[in-house]
Amino acid sequence: MENEEDKDMVMLHLVRRNNKSFYDLAKIYKSDRNWFYRENLPISMTPNEDVKQIVQDTLPQTHYDIKGCTILTFKEDLPLLKEKITEYFDNFKQVE
Hints:
By secondary structure, the protein is α+β, with helices and mostly antiparallel strands.
């Protein structure tokens, strides 16, 4: 797996915030980073682990590296990952 310095790679950082800690994200929000944001998630939901599993189930093993809450993957894989992750959140809300 390449490193995060590679221009073809992107780092995904999984963070779950509550209303009290959301202000911590202000400095990131003003940066050049991209966001995938969902609100009002049930406390029982484990999105970090589920998103890691989605990555593992969706991409070839050579297309990602997962360490803790950070996923390193190729930029070309982002549209497919976004589709799968959006589907996950949409389906979870419907089941709730």
